[in-house]
Amino acid sequence: MHSRNRQGGFTLIESLVTVVILAFGLVGLVTMQAKIQVAQTESYQRAQAILLLQDMSNRISANRVAAAQYVVSAPLGTGDSQPASCAGLTGVQLDLCEWSQELKGAGEKQSANSVGAMIGARGCVDQVSSSPPIYRVTVAWQGLSNLKAPNVACGQNLYGSDAMRRAIYGLVTVPNLKS
To answer: Distance from CA of residue 23 to its chain's centroid?
Structure first.
């Protein structure tokens, strides 16, 4: 009878070890799920940024005669001074206002809030060459974790740590068709 009690105790220890191993496994799964969620959100934000970058690049290309007027001194989007409504604007001013609204997420609403863009999205347009005219269109936003800071200035020092800032850019070359 004495050996039977020992065997029961040994089963209890096996059960406790199994529970501890399962607990570590579950903690690992929860951690992995959280990392997947962050990666998915970062991926979504990057896809949104690419669409917004292409939008402004296309606007500049379509209005190449006035391309220099698209250059902005301060980032558009979050925290800018663009009007809440673009009604009554035309040409370049309309394009800049609409792009600002898109950067602020106006493409998708939840209740009365704009939620269709990245966190703290901002856009910049600057000229990098004059002959031929080349413009850099940049979209910057706040990431969810620290990475290496981007090498473009758009949105710099506006997201706390610069390692939280994400930025993509594209170049638009305006051809001289006068010959």
So the answer is: 35
